[in-house]
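## Example pair
The file below holds two records. Each record gives the amino-acid sequence first, followed by its structure token line.
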Amino acid sequence: MHHKRLIWQLYPSQLLITLAALLAFTWYGTSSIRSFQLSETAIGLEARAHLVASSVLGYLEHDDLKGLEAFCREAGKKSLTRLTVIAPDGKILADSDEDPARMENHNDRPEIIAAFAGKIVPTLRFSQTLQQNLMYMAIPLDGHGNRKDVLRVAIPVTTIDKALSAIYQKILWGCLVVAVIAALAAWFIARRISKPLEQMKLGAERFAMGDFAGRMQAEGAEEVAGLARALNEMAVQLDGRIQTIVRQHSQLQAVFASMVEGVITVDTEERVLDVNQSGAQLLNVDPEKIRGKSILLAVRNTHLQNFVKNALASASPMEGEFSSRMGADGQEKYFYAHGARLQDSQGHITGALIVINDVTSLRRLESMRRDFVANVSHELKTPITSIEGFAETLLDGALDEPEDARRFVEIIGKQAARLHAIVEDLLALSRVEQEAKREEIVLQELPIAEVLQSAIQTCSSRAEKENVSISLACAPTITAGINPALFEQAVVNLLDNAVKYSGKGSEIKVEAEIKAGEVLIRVCDNGVGIASQDIFRIFERFYRVDKARSAKLGGTGLGLSIVKHIVQAHHGRVSVESSPGKGSIFTIHLPVRS
């Protein structure tokens, strides 16, 4: 709907009222003046008629029609009045302007009829004889025997019209002047009324845009000034309330954004209303793209969708767990969720709040602990069972057979050595963890080439037995913050694994370089490689990719776990690139000290 401005509603109506009043006044004034002029003219005509009535009666009593006609012409010329004497039968006896013989019977003229009836009635009429407007008035002439003649007098109203026209022009100009003054006054009054309202409109628009600094001027009529004061008071209250809401919203958003837990709010139709950054990262979604979508389309997880549906249907808070495969690697993640319905002040259900925790690490840790218990039990059970079995065999009589006894004792010694190695590796691993936790490991900025060369020499004898060559590519200027003994042990463990799992005649490369703010030490082999599903678990304690092959090659299953903890003690990390049948690349990442 198109709305007119207030000034264009006030001003035209005021101007229209003023013009209508002027027109009414002009019409009434001109009508009154014309009526007054005609009335005065009629009075004058009647007076003239009575002045000449006695003379006319004298001529009629003597039947002197020629003298009467001459008198009428003389008197009419002097008084500028047309004089006409009419007989009772309507015949013209004398006329001051025309020949009576040529004039038609006047018995039907209104003023004549009125005069015969004894009345004096002025009449305005166009004269066909004189071809102009005249005012006629007739008076009866009594005293001429039994006859009752009529004397009619008439004057042109042209002079009256000219006089009235001059008066009308003056009135018109006066009305125009009054109309202009009234238009200006109406414009001024309309602006005086509308301007404060326009200012209030602009002020209200500023308030709507959140600018509460300015205030409206309380001017104009009391109603308008009162409205301005009310709007100013409203602005003060709105400013305070909006600041409170913004402050509370900012605090809520800060809490919402800083929460480690993922938080999702949905409406009663299971559409996503909002999700915090942690929730978006946990579920691997874009917060802006999923708002307004159903939870199933947004996350594509039926378990979460069922949990949301149950949370909306349940009157009490709910807890549950679900899993999801996400990310480029397709690893399964585990989530623990808390859900509760949202209600407004009237108790109506508006949606649900879902809080999600990533318990993948906890589940993996529990799995690692179970595997560790199973693996360490298996690793210890095998040598203990072997020692126990051969000891019983010796006690049962094998001691009497020197060759068997010696072989059994050698097996017992070998298994005891394996137990010793497991215990030593466990103690070493525990020692590294404890020292790293207490920051007792001293790191020195040293060249790493010497340490790498020493590690290669340590593994050279076994490499020669397997016909495996080890090469080193490291600039002598490359340094890093290391503990030489621990760092050498980590490299030795990587080289030992590379020798074990590389075929005869293979080549192992040890490379070092500085790249992207890190010192990178790579141990590359072309051995059996590692499957992708095992890569993220190979640093677990006692975890073996190929248990049969690992048991045959020996080892405690703790070597890579020791490497991981030693590198972490050096504030670094270990990464692996491997494919089955194509070998493996173990990379130690150490920070470059500034």
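Second record, same layout:
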Amino acid sequence: MKQLIECVPNFSEGRDMSVIKQITDVIESVEGVKLLDVDPGKATNRTVVTFVGEPGPVTEAAFLAIKKACEVIDMSRHQGEHPRMGATDVCPLIPIANISMEETAAWARRLGERVGNELALPVYLYESAASRPERKNLADIRAGEYEALPEKMNKPEWKPDYGPAVFNAKSGATVIGARDFLLAYNINLNTTSVRRANSVAFDVREKGRVVNDPVTGKPLKDENGEPLRQPGWLKGVKAIGWYIEEYGIAQVSMNITDISQVPLHEAFEACHRSAEARGMRVTGSELVGLAPLKVFLDAGRYFLRKQRRSAGVSEAELIKIAVKSMGLDELAPFDPQQKIIEYNLEKGSASSAAMLVAKDLRAFADEAASESPAPGGGSVSAYVGALGASLATMVANLSSHKRGWDDRWEVFSDAAEHGQQLKDALLRAVDEDTNAFNLIMAAFGMPKGTPEEKAARKTAIQSATKIAIEVPYKVMQLALGSFPLIRQMVAEGNPNSVTDAGVGALCARTCVYGAYLNVLVNTTGLDDREYAAKVTAESEVILKKALEMEAEIVEMVKKAMNI
């Protein structure tokens, strides 16, 4: 499996798009690298670039980008709101898939050494690639910023990890490292006061604020002579306040270093609480760079539950609720296809465009009716199962919002969320089934001239056949799993929608039966007869249960209709 890392360099230019384009052009020139996002800021005079790929191509692209930044950015003329110390201020590598943090840190060190040696640029390593504990924190390395570098690099404790300990007036210095996924997130306030924005930042950031003597106003000291601090509310969050002339507002600028510990919506709510207590209002927020899909799904569910509304809605609706609730579109349009990592990676790919579930209803039906053998009964069965789960989910959502049932909304919300999970899994199986069929066809098309080729072909056919059995078997399990939800909606859901739940049961039964037939037909071509007998027996048990549950639910529907 491919190792994937993300690189998010920050360049000290956010106003001249021709300069930015020269940098992004060299990134895109490297084969195997996908440029995901370019996020310039005029007031900060800084651009955050995001790209992803395997470690080799990514570090090559990072080197070329740092080199180009040295050529086209002059730090002696740079001014901006954001702290900075070099043309490429910071260049973190982030493990995304099938690679450890230790391996990512090794790549960061190799990149740092190359930059120092070939570009004669002072390089400091930070976070997981740091050469010593006191250099782990980016803020500590960047203290004093570009202007402090001439004096700083003369001190032995601030000798660069790589490159000369000589001030580079044009390019400054750069910080390279490996870190976990970080969210750069700004909260918009209805004030122009940096001091008041900082008061919110001090409330929420882990570092908190210095405690002053109420009489003298001077900082209180602890037993070690260090300033006494009152910790903030959010672990792993760094924050400062600043004024953005471009927007005419003050912001709280945050780095969320652990989104599992502090979700995006929790950071938003903490700033909202602090601002409100200080007579201010949060008007919206701004995501710098990209974020994982889960961030928005969790936020959407949180805000729906806060309204006591069902969180069992579609992925698209959850994202919409998250964006509107946090005002992520206040300063600029928010494009999920651009800002959500998973969507961005899929955007424009051939595999994404060819997906059956990406087609509209007519196009899907036309594809199924064409002379091509795929999509066939397996894909259609999975889709029918998804419709069954969708109907049950619809009844749950209607029941959650039914007048007079306010005390039961959470039960139905949980049911709807479960239905959405079943629906999404069955929709994924629509393409999985067709892909499995295509694997079999590809295996049969392999050369079979030599004994080695014949053996490889036979192995590939058997492997593909097993996948073609496993996919419909999984579909049977998923569809069977939707029956308890459907039954619950018939028994407890909105009585006006009882027939909708009944149709859901008919769809689930059709799905199970159709997938069962696909399991049977594919087991005939499998040499592993023990496995074939086992999965056939288990499939017959699932089919029997599905038929029994469908019959029971249909009778329940008839009884509810007095038929």
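Notes on the second record: The first strand starts at residue 4 and ends at 7. The radius of gyration is 29 Å.
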